[in-house]
Structures are given as C-alpha cells and as structure tokens.
User: Which sequence fits this backbone?
C-alpha cells in the first residue's frame, strides 16, 4: 500500500499500467495473492490500513486497476477466437490466477451491504398504499448505485454495450435500464429472501391482473415474485393500512359519501346461470369517496359558500357536513313557478344553441377534412369564416381525480329494506362511527334508483324511532348512469315501431336495413343499443341537413361544403324548423282544427239521416279527419330527432363533467319519464328538480354540482355517474373471486380482497409507468359506423321521409299509381301482399280495435311517438330487391315508403278489405 501510484486523479490507464504491475509483483513477493490482499485490507481494523484503503477507493483505484486490463484483452475481430485466448492467457500470467476471486470478494461485499439495507426490503406486513404507489424502478436503480456501485456498473456495462438505455432497434419497447434493475433485484433476492422490494410489488401486480396461482408460483421460483401466501399477507396489510387512513381523514372532518350495490356471486360454480341459481349468493359491494369541494374562481357566486363549507369542515369538526348548511329550515313550495319549463332559465331557452353545436359536431365528424381545409384557406386569404360552434358551460366541474376507496364486501342482501338497514349499520362499524356521532351532520349516499328508494323507505319507517336511529343524516345523490340507461330505453321503445320493420323510419325498420344482430325492442344489451340509436340519430341529423341544403346525398353535401356552404347557418335553420319543442304539436293542432272545421261544416250541410259511418260518431270523425291531414312518418322523424338530441346532450354533459347542463337536461327527461310509464324515475327526477328549486341551500347546490359526477382517471371527458363507479367496484371485486380456489376463505375475500379493489389499479398504473409500458388504449376500439350512417341517410332521403305530406295526398298518389314507374301489375302484386298481411294481422289480434292507433291524449302521454302498426311501405319491386318472407332490402335501390298512416283501419273495415282484394284480382284478369 506504500507504493505510490503515478499522477493525480486525472491520470490515464497508460499512466497507471506500470504501477499496477509493480504493485502486483510486490504482493507476490510477500507471499500473497491479490484477492487475499484486498480481503485483508477491506476487513482490517488497523487505522492506517483503513486510511490507505479509503484513499485508494476515493481516488477510484479499483476502477483504474480494471482500466489497465482492457488493452490486454483487445484482439483482431477477424481472428477473434485465437486472439482472445492469447490475451486472456497473457492477462492471467501477469495478474495471477486470483483475478476471479478478487472480483468475487469485492462484488459480494457490495451485494451483502445492499441486502442489509432497509431500502431493499419490504415486509409483507409493512406495505402501505403510499409505499406501493411511490416505488419506481428509478428509485430501485438509485439504491443499487449507492450500495453497489461496482456491481451495478458491471451489470449495466454488460447489458448496455453501446451505452444506450434503449434497444438498438427503434421498434422495440425494451428498456435496458429497467432490465438491468430487475437483474440486480433478482441477484439481491437470490442472496437474501428479505431483499424483496421489487418481488413484493411484482407479486401484488400479478394478483391485480388476476394471474393464476400456478403462474405466481413459477415466477416465485425463478426469483421474479414473492410467494402466493406473501401476496395474500400484503393484501391484508394494504387493506388494513388504507382503512386506517380513511378513518383518520373522516375524524379530521373531511366530508365523504357512501355507495353500495348488490353483487351476486356463484359459490363453487364456474359460471353464473339460471340453472345453478341455488349456488348463487347475494353480497353487497361497498365503497367510500371523499367529496370534492373546490375553491371557486374569484368573483364567483359560490365564494362565500365555499368559505362557510370549509370552516364547518375544518380539522376537529364532527364527521360529515353541517346539515343546517345544506337544507332550508322553512320550505315554501307555493313559490314554485308552475310554468318553469317555459321560463327564461328553463331548458327551452337553453337547448337550441346546444342543438346547433351537436349538428355541427356531426358534420365535423364526417367532413372534418373539408371543413379544416376551408378554415385554413380562409385564414390564409384573411377572409371571414364561421368559427366552429362550441358548447357553453353552465357549471364545469374542476378537473381532479376522484378519491374512491373500496370497503369490505358484506354478506348481506341489499335488495330488501331490512338488508339496507344492516348495511348501514355495517358501514358505521367499519368506519368506527356511531349513529349518534352524525346528529346534525350530513353524509352523502349514492347508488341506483332501487338503493335510493329503499333508503328513503327505511327513513320513513323509522320516523317514530329515536332521532339518531332515523338515518336523517343521509343525503341522496342520484345515480346518473342508470338514468342514462332509462333515457336510452325510453327512446328505444318509443321509436322502435313494428317488429316486422314495416314502419318507415322507425328503429326496427333501420335495424332490418342495416342487418344488425342482437338488437330488439327489449334493448337487451345497453352498449350495442346505444351505438345503434347514435347511428340512427346521426343519420337523421345528416338527412335533415341535406334536406335544408337541398342536396340528395352525402356526396353532394361534401361537394357543397367544399364550395363554401355556411354550415352554421344551415344547422341553425334545421334547429329552427325541426327542433323547437312545439313543432309536432303545432302540426297536430293544425290537423285537429281542420277536423273540427270539417265536423262543423258537415253538421251544417248534412242532416242526421244523411250521415253514414263515422259521421255519426264525433270522436271517430275527428280522429279520421285529423289523421288524414297529418303525416305520421314525418312527425315521428321530427320527434326522434328532438328526443335523440336531448339524450345525446345528456350523455355528452355527463362525460365532460358539466353538471349544470346535466341538471338542465333532467327537466325534459322528468316529463318524458312521466309519460312513458317510468314512474319511479319520473318521481326521482321531479323530486330532484323541486329540491333544487326550494329545498337546497346554495351550499348544497354547490356540493351537488361538484360531486354528482366522479372521474377515476383525472382526465378530461372521463366523468361518470356515481352508480357507474359502484358497478366498477362490483366488477373489480368479482374479478378477484375464484370459487374453486383452495386458499380463499370467505372472510379473506370479503374483507381483504375487496378493500384492495382500487389499490390494484394504483399499483398497476405505477408499475406500468415505471417500466415505461405503452398504453394500449381501451379494451375495444371505436366502432366505425360511417357506412351505416350513410345508409341511414340514403334510406331517409330516398324515402322522402323528410317531406311533409298529408295522408289523403299519399293515398291519392298510391292508389292512382303515381308512385314509381313500374307496371300496375307489379304495384297490385305488392298491394295484394299488403292487404293479405293486414288481414292476417287482424286475425291474429282478434279484432280491428286492437290494431288502432293511439289517441291524441295517449300520444301526448307517450312523448308523441306513434306505434305505427298500421303503416305500410311501398316499393317499386324488382325480383332481387325484396324477399317478402324475410323482408330483405336491396342495398342499391332504396324503398319508397307508402306513408298512408292508418289508411286500412280508418277507412276500411274487414269486408271492405276483402272487396279491395277482389278488385285487385279483377284488375289482374283485365276486367273492371
């Protein structure tokens, strides 16, 4: 150690090489090899040797010794094998045979130091949500570089020969730095099973992805994961730590809410089905979320509201929110404006501009390239152009990731009132709170409509109980996801039409045209039916725009937009003509007035003895004449366009988090729910609107606007109803359930696994980001529906569905042979088929009364859409166009509908239909 090395710390390997060999020779002269020498020096307790060793390592002596070796290892690539052998032999001769032992001693000492470091260990009982979310591969690499600088450098140098962290192939997703870190962690885990920080996280990650127990066991044996039992212990620790954190935050006064939903799980069965109903068990999945009370912008009307809410929820306050701040003590329902739907603040004043924006969005979806080119050209030429309309926000929830925590699942059935009471008691116990602690406080609860109704019923049943047992501290938040489904179901059923698809422009008609499977009037699959109504709705929008722009198809509309058509003005004209709330009502009132005038005129001109048929019945006469002056198909087109735009706006506002606009959309939905037989939703939405008008204080309104929607990702456009979050909790818990697993006891599944439902996502996200795993998008790609929409547009335009015609004019054209250019024989053949179908339908119904259209009062009660069972379509028939058995439509020649409404039923009795059949047969024979 007294031998001085030449130069300073900046000396090169060439300067060091002679001194290195001199040191080696001196060590041999003392009867030692280099490995023994370094081992004794590093373990020596002599201060002088410790000082010398410290100086040696401080000046990078060990690294410089190794830098002297590469010149002896160089060889000609053309003679790689021969030169390499000679270089190795020469190096061994000059350094001795203990080189491998030297490297082993040094690297083993480093690895031993790393394994004894607390940063390398993660006991399964010490894992917490904060630790799991903050551990990254960068931190693991940093720990290795601090404890094992030489080992880490050797591994990285070997793996990263060119010094680049990424693979040499540009298309590869491999990250060499991450691979090196994993290799080092596996070496530490091989040295000591306590050095398991990475393996514990990998095991938890595997469980989060529902990897099988056998696969986890395999990865444990090769050093990439801890054992399955250790993963179970880590889940227990994670759930327990998360629950402690929740309880602490609740008792510190943070406002929160509960949600729960029923969860049906099969016990010892591989599948759930009706056949194994006895093996199904009802559980309840529960979750808790902390309310989002953001600070409003300066000058906002909610500044004082926010200050009061924060002061009442400060640290040390009782759990929940102050009930006095949320609801008015004196409620005056007499102050409600009974004409609120027509007021300046109502939906009627708010919606027209939003409809224009929705119409323009559909145009941008189809013709974005054309519109972008026109805008760019206008900017280049410095010309004025119509800017793309944008939605006006009523109240936008500030973007923030919602804090949702899964709680223990309960072996209780929430489908009963008694079960709901037991669930509330269990939630109190899990959060270590009593009902007495909520006196004068408020806790939000949310769920689907059935859950909310049972809670309200429970509160009413306990009106005579002690105050603390009445559950008056629960404040409901509606589940907008199920309300979305109810609105889609209402839209679907009202406009479905006849099951054989013979109603022109109806959803069933378009379903047959598009050839879709798995869709019927019962709306069995929500997502598929929602895509279908969106396809039809966008087709209706484009058809209305084509009609307003006076073009015959999508291609001509594209050309006209390229020529500079002001699409904003066209959209505004469509909204003025078709989308005002009373468009169809005005058309019907006009027809009713004509019917009344016809009745009055008939009463003046005909004596009672001269009247026949429905002239003797005022109601039947008015209905017939009114329908003769209406176009039912056109009216239903307008109604579907209006209804679809409202439902579309409802979906959009929920996804973007505009809770103020959502509240506006609920106004017409409340009326439609009442008219479509959805009484529970009608009551719920009406109560919501009344509470907003007279019960809520500004504090409650501010809290509702910010918490009626949740965002689990913290990204724009990802908001959803609270009940949808609850459905996600149910799905995540059920994904972890394995009825055939031997280890999984019921208590462990209900308590430990359920509490980790959302922590699984956090750990998966942290691990994926740390390993630089690319985001592969959603599970399913976006369905391309432009071709289907274009087909819907062609059907509507070529069928003249958007042209208003009176029924008598349609009948005159139809019976006069004015529709189509085919021969009378072909038209009569089709008419014969229509009449036979009508007679068969009446025979199945048993009487003509069951085949009648809805009355005007019934139409208003159902939102205005007719059943249209009596309507028929007319076709200029070719042999390969239509198969009367399966109702197959040609893709090239579109059907031209016969829009005679209730022609058969209102103007012809059964015997008259038979007479008309005889007339058609006589026409075939060439006789009058």
Assistant:
């Amino acid at each position: 150690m007294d031998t001085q090395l030449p130069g300073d710390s900046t000396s090169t390997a060439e300067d060091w090489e002679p001194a290195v060999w001199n040191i080696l020779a001196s060590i041999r002269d003392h009867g030692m090899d280099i490995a023994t020498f370094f081992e004794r020096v590093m373990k020596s307790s002599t201060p002088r040797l410790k000082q010398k060793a410290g100086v040696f390592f401080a000046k990078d002596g060990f690294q410089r010794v190794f830098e002297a070796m590469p010149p002896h290892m160089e060889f000609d690539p053309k003679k790689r094998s021969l030169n390499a052998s000679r270089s190795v032999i020469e190096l061994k001769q000059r350094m001795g045979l203990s080189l491998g032992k030297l490297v082993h001693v040094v690297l083993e000492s480093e690895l031993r130091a790393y394994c004894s470091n607390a940063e390398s260990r993660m006991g399964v009982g010490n894992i917490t949500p904060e630790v799991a979310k903050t551990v990254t591969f960068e931190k693991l690499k940093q720990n290795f570089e601090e404890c094992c600088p030489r080992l880490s450098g050797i591994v990285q140098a070997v793996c990263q020969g060119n010094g680049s962290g990424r693979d040499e192939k540009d298309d590869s997703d491999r990250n060499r730095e991450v691979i090196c870190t994993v290799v080092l962690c596996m070496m530490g885990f091989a040295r000591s099973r306590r050095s398991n920080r990475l393996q514990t996280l990998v095991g938890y990650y595997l469980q989060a992805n529902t990897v099988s127990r056998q696969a986890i066991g395999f990865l444990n044996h090769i050093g990439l994961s801890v054992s399955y039992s250790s993963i179970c212990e880590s889940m227990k620790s994670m759930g327990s730590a998360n629950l402690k954190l929740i309880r602490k935050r609740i008792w510190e006064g943070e406002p929160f809410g509960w949600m729960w939903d029923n969860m049906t799980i099969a016990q010892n069965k591989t599948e759930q089905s009706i056949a194994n109903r006895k093996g199904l068990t009802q559980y309840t999945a529960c979750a808790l979320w902390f309310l989002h009370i953001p600070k409003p912008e300066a000058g906002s009307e909610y500044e004082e509201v926010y200050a009061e809410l924060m002061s009442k929820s400060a640290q040390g306050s009782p759990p929940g929110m102050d009930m006095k701040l949320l609801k008015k003590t004196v409620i005056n329902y007499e102050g409600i404006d009974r004409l609120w739907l027509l007021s300046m603040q109502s939906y009627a004043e708010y919606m027209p501009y939003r409809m224009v924006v929705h119409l323009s969005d559909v145009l941008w979806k189809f013709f974005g390239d054309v519109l972008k080119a026109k805008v760019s050209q206008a900017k280049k030429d410095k010309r004025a152009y119509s800017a793309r309309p944008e939605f006006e926000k009523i109240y936008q929830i500030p973007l923030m990731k919602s804090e949702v925590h899964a709680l223990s699942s309960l072996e209780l059935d929430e489908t009963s009132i008694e079960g709901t009471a037991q669930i509330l008691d269990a939630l109190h116990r899990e959060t270590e709170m009593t009902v007495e602690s909520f006196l004068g406080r408020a806790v939000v609860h949310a769920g689907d409509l059935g859950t909310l109704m049972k809670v309200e019923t429970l509160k009413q049943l306990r009106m005579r109980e002690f105050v603390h047992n009445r559950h008056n501290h629960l404040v409901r938040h509606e589940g907008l996801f199920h309300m979305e489904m109810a609105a889609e179901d209402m839209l679907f059923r009202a406009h479905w039409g006849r099951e054989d698809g013979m109603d022109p422009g109806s959803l069933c008609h378009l379903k047959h045209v598009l050839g879709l499977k798995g869709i019927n009037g019962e709306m069995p699959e929500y997502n598929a039916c929602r895509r279908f109504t969106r396809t039809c709705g966008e087709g209706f929008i484009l058809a209305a725009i084509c009609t307003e722009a006076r073009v015959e198809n999508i291609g001509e509309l594209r050309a006209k937009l390229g020529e500079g058509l002001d699409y904003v003005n066209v959209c505004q004209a469509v909204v003025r003509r078709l989308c005002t709330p009373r468009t169809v009502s005005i058309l019907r009132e006009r027809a009713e007035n004509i019917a009344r005038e016809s009745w009055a005129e008939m009463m003046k001109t005909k004596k009672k003895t001269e009247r026949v048929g429905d002239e003797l019945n005022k109601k039947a006469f008015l209905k017939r004449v009114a329908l003769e002056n209406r176009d039912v198909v056109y009216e239903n087109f307008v109604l579907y366009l209006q209804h679809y735009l409202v439902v579309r706006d409802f979906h959009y506002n929920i996804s973007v988090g505009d809770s103020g606009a959502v509240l506006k959309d609920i106004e017409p939905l409340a009326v439609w729910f009442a008219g479509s037989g959805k009484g529970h939703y009608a009551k719920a939405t009406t109560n919501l609107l009344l509470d907003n008008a007279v019960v809520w204080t500004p504090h409650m309104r501010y809290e509702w606007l910010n918490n009626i929607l949740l965002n689990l990702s913290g990204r724009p456009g990802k908001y959803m109803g609270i009940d949808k979050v609850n459905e996600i909790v149910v799905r995540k818990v059920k994904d972890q359930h394995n009825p055939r697993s031997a280890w999984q006891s019921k208590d462990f599944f209900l308590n430990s696994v359920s509490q980790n439902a959302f922590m699984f996502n956090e750990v998966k996200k942290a691990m994926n980001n740390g390993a630089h795993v690319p985001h592969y998008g959603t599970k399913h790609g976006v369905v391309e529906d432009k071709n289907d929409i274009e087909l819907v547009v062609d059907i509507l335009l070529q069928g003249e569905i958007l042209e208003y015609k009176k029924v008598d004019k349609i009948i005159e054209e139809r019976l006069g042979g004015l529709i189509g250019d085919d021969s009378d024989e072909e038209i009569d053949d089709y008419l014969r088929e229509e009449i036979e179908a009508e007679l068969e339908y009446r025979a199945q119904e048993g009487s003509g009364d069951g085949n009648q259209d809805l009355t005007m009062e019934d139409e208003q009660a159902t939102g205005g859409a007719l059943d249209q069972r009596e309507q028929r379509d007319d076709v200029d028939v070719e042999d390969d166009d239509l198969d009367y058995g399966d109702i197959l439509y040609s893709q090239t020649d579109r059907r031209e509908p016969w829009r005679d409404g209730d022609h058969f039923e209102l103007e012809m009795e059964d015997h008259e239909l038979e007479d008309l059949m005889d007339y058609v047969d006589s026409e075939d024979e060439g006789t009058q």
